[in-house]
Here is the input.
Amino acid sequence: MKACEMMGLSMSSYYYEPKVSKAEKEEQDADLRGKIEQVRVTHPRAGYRPRKRFVNTTNSNHSHTVYTNLLPEMTVNGVNQVWTSDIT
Here is the structure.
């Protein structure tokens, strides 16, 4: 059983929100902006993610064999002529 039925109200009465004048809405918005500014002054870093330091995940100075890219020399003109993969 819905809450509005338990109280003996129609759905439209239960969910009714009175209209707010434009001036009153602007005043409420200004008050809210003022409160937000107060929080921002008190907690200037609130809502921001801390900066993470850069982590270099590639080591190009290694002793392993580095293979050349053979694709620039090829002319690909059909399906399944070239397959590539990357294991990073």
